[in-house]
Amino acid sequence: MKNLTIAILAVVFLSSACSNTPKDQSVSGTILNAEGQEVTLIGFPKGQPDTLGNAVLTASGEFSFPINSGPLAFYNLNVGDSETIILAFDSTQSPVVTADLTTIESNYDISGSKDSEAIKDSYLESYRYETTLDSLMSAMQEAAANQDNEARIGLSKQYNDMRKEYKNFLTSQIDADSTNVANFAVLQRLNPEEDWSYVIRVRNGLGPRLTGNVFYDQFANQIAQLENQKKAEAAFAPGAVAPDIVLPSPEGPEIALSSLRGDYVLIDFWAAWCKPCRIENPNLVRMYNKYKDDNFEIFGVSLDQHRDKWVEAIAQDNLTWPQVSDLGFWQSAAAQLYNVTSIPYTVLVDPEGKIIATRLRGKALEDKLDSIFGH
Description:
Helices cover about 40% and strands about 20% of the residues. With about 375 residues, it is of the alpha+beta class.
């Protein structure tokens, strides 16, 4: 998966506690052209890898490991030093693997375990798409190196069409069955920002099957945290009323953001110690002077710790608009209220106190003010 704000746990790290199972449960199979190679079954009780069985393959390629599994869990079947097959089964399933070591990366078969079969089907189809995409990318690079623009454009179209087809395959798998354990691997190939609804579907679909599993629970907790973050961000979406800020001014008396209702107000989170903020201040001064007679105001909220440095920066940068601070640094009540994690950070509100936009700086801010005031 692209990289994320959010990290989806790989299926190979899922596990669950053991319980009593039928005595004849096993993981077995045949791997041809692997004589002398070691085959190892790895489980992950309590999240830590544990060897559940291993053997050196003979010419027949046959192996069998008795196992006592419990609820649905994931396992690695390692062959030699580099090949791994992902298995998933509970106490009712006994996977049987059939493969040829010379082609195991692109083709193998599994029976006796519907969940392992689902993972195999998803993996092999993904392998086909990804191999094709890699080949197209190499061909595009070669065409670019040869300055063959016509070929590069044609290959680029093929590549983009294949990417769309691949994504449709991935999302259709979740649409078809959100309880499919292979969806954990699918999530790694999607973008959680673009495909958030699919992340939620997988979390909800696998919950009844995997709740209580340490790694699934970690995944679900991560999603819950992101959900809370998205809810917090929604509270500051355009159209929402900006929460009031009431903090002391440099002179001592408190100033309330709400006292500026009737004006367009730019809430500017900054600090004397913040170099990007100080670099941006001349732009704010210029825009303030340009629009201050057009019902425009700036409300500076400092994340400073030391009053003298705060006051000194106000004077040095010629900041003549209202300034407030509780000198709380990152623990500033206003910063906490607005979920500010980096500065400079701005919030533009309309005369009714409703948010117009956030994070406007430089030209983006000037363009927005020009669109509002017409000059």
